[in-house]
Fold this protein.
Amino acid sequence: MPYLIAAGVLLVLVVLLVQHWYITLPIALIIGLALILPRVVRHIRMKRYFTSEIFLAHKSEIASVVAEHNEIANYVAEIREGGSFSLGSSSTGSQAYLASFQNTSSQGYRRDRNLADYAAPNVHNCSLQVVRNAAADPLKYVMKYFDVKATEETLADVELLGESVARLEDAVENLKHRESGITTSFDPPAFILKHYSDEFMRQAGVELSPVTVPYPEYAFEYVSAGGNSSQRTSVKLDTPVVDALIDALSQKIRFRKTAEGQRALMTASLRKFIKDRDGYTCRYCSISVAIEPHLLLEVDHIHPVSRGGLSAVDNLQTLCWRCNRTKSNKVPATDPLT
Ligand SMILES: [Zn+2]
């Protein structure tokens, strides 16, 4: 009904406009100009700013800062590609590709508003009850339905996932700080920041990589038989959730009695403990956050996990991203997955 009214009003307006074109046409032209002119002026001012001496001088002054930023942007891409960002999968639909589904309802019956996606390994198709229970007890249900078994191997995988997620989160955060540092040091006019922030970074030579952390996400989904309704509970494995999962698994495994179990759990609090212990200083090159406030520090296994190294406090050290990158390039992992 509202569409009909709107269409009617529009029709009346068009008729009026066409009949009195000698009045409406100039008005339309003036409105059009008033809308376009400020943009043209702004565009000219923007071009002038980016070719101004003050901008170019500043750009060459902070060239090394920008170069370092871009190196970290590349490093972020390396972490993202080389990291481990998946875990477990649902068995529902693992053979769904063998069948074909066809909606044979006669006209008037819409059965396709909500369709179950059996092909997605991160989606468990289940009853409404399971969707609701999963919302109340997410970790228990993720472990149960996505085959995250309480074994030491799984625990190691979850810890590895946690490390990848945390490294990437830290590196992305570091890039953001650097970018805002660069912007502040330029102190460009407000209209540049408001309308040309991407262009500003491009002109400053900053490589912007739209990096997000590919958190694994698990969903429990119920789709009614008629396709009329669907409900979903999803669990995103960010650092706090991964740490809770590590804790839950370790409690189930109760491996602490064995010699291997004397290790610490690789969680955010352990990483912070190691950085605190090392005074936020790289153990290789001795650079510290006191010297370089934007320093990106990482926690490294002295003896790599892929070669049997444990997450024990005395096997962990703080390294700056440069030293850690050089080290991991020198020590190729034996396991291709790590
Ligand atoms: Zn270092």
Summary: The two ends are 60 Å apart (CA to CA). Residues 333-338 have pLDDT under 50 and may be disordered.
